[in-house]
From TrEMBL:
One of its GO terms (biological process) is riboflavin biosynthetic process. PROSITE patterns: LUMAZINE_BIND. This is Riboflavin synthase. Residues 1-96, 97-193 form the Lumazine-binding domain. NCBIfam families: PRK09289.1 (NF006767), PRK13020.1 (NF009566), ribE (TIGR00187). Catalyzes the dismutation of two molecules of 6,7-dimethyl-8-ribityllumazine, resulting in the formation of riboflavin and 5-amino-6-(D-ribitylamino)uracil. Its EC number is 2.5.1.9. The keyword Repeat applies. Pathway: Cofactor biosynthesis; riboflavin biosynthesis; riboflavin from 2-hydroxy-3-oxobutyl phosphate and 5-amino-6-(D-ribitylamino)uracil: step 2/2. It comes from the Bacteria.
Length: 196
C-alpha cells in the first residue's frame, strides 16, 4: 500500500525488452534507498513494482506485458517518474490509501494556470467514471489528489504549486495520457451492494 505522497522524481535510466515485458533501471536521489531490500515494492508513476536489483541510488524492476498494456509512462528511457516506497504500518498517511494497481488510463483535456493553482481536467475511461466523486480521492500518476468537479467522464482537480514542484505533473500538456487509480473504498462499496 502507498499514500500517494511522492517522495522523489526519478529517471528511467534504462528500459530493456524482457520477453515482451520490460526491465527498468530507475535512478533516484531523494527516495532513500538504505532500507530498500530485494522484493520490496516501489510505486513508479502510480504502478506498484517489485525491486529485483539495487545498487546505490538505482533500483531495477521488471514490468510484465500485462502491466504495460494497462498503463502509460514506463517504456521511455530518460522519462521522469513519480516515486514512492510502500507504507509501513507506523507511517503517516498524508494522502489516501493507494494500492498501486492502476485502474485505467485517462487523458488531459485541460491544464490551465489559475494564478494560485493549476486546473487539471481529465477524461477518464467510461467504466471508471462512476467511481469518481466530488471531494473524493483519485490517484494520477501516483499522486493523491482531491476531485473538485465531475461532469460525465471528465473530472477536475486543482494542483497547488508544491505539488507541481515535487512531481512530474508540471510536465503535463493537453492530450497527455495518465495512470488513474480510483479510491479503493468506491470499489468495495459497489461490491457490497452487488448480490452474489
Amino acid at each position: 500500500m502507498f499514500s500517494g505522497i511522492i517522495a522523489d522524481v526519478g529517471i528511467i535510466k534504462r528500459a530493456q525488452d524482457r520477453n515482451g515485458g520490460l526491465r527498468l533501471s530507475v535512478s533516484t536521489l531523494e527516495l532513500g534507498m538504505d532500507d530498500v531490500k530485494l522484493g520490496d515494492s516501489i510505486a513508479v508513476n502510480g504502478i506498484c513494482l517489485t525491486v529485483v536489483e539495487r545498487l546505490g541510488y538505482d533500483f531495477t524492476v521488471d514490468v510484465s506485458r500485462e502491466t504495460l498494456n494497462c498503463t502509460v509512462g514506463l517504456d521511455r528511457q530518460g522519462a521522469r517518474v513519480n516515486l514512492e516506497k510502500a507504507l509501513r504500518l507506523s507511517d503517516r498517511i498524508g494522502g489516501h490509501l493507494v494500492s498501486g494497481h492502476v485502474d485505467g488510463v485517462g487523458e488531459v483535456v485541460q491544464f490551465n494556470d489559475l494564478g494560485e493553482s493549476w486546473l487539471l481536467a481529465v477524461r477518464a475511461p467510461h467504466a471508471l467514471a462512476k467511481y469518481i466523486a466530488v471531494k473524493g480521492s483519485i490517484t494520477i500518476n501516483g499522486v493523491s489528489l482531491t476531485v473538485n468537479h465531475v461532469a460525465g467522464c471528465e473530472f477536475a482537480v486543482n494542483l497547488i504549486p508544491h505539488t507541481l514542484a515535487v512531481t512530474t505533473l508540471n510536465e503535463l500538456k493537453v492530450g497527455a495520457m495518465l495512470n488513474l487509480e480510483i479510491d479503493l473504498i468506491a470499489r468495495y462499496v459497489e461490491r457490497m451492494q452487488t448480490s452474489i
